[in-house]
Amino acid sequence: MLNAKNRLKKRKEFAYIYKKGTKIYGQHLCIFFVPSKISTPRIGFSVGNKVGKAVTRNKLKRQLRHIMREFVPQIHNINMVVLVYPEIIGSTYTQLRDNIYKTLLRGKILVE
Description:
alpha+beta; globular
């Protein structure tokens, strides 16, 4: 699970990132990000109703939080929102992880 200090929760924060952020498109997802003044990254997840019913959406968000927890030490000074498309239904955990990893590398978000 992602720590509370690493989560975006407020609608205003999501709106700011959507408006001012840079987009990176991946397979079945899009990541919006903006630079931040604080050193810890903050991450939010957006999974719409088209992805499925509440059980499906919540399971997907839990998986995303677990995956992003692994990448948090490599991300600095960034706030981001991960937007998931309906085509992601049926993807396995490893496919989801690889998809996010490749998208983060493409956007030069990961610091290695």
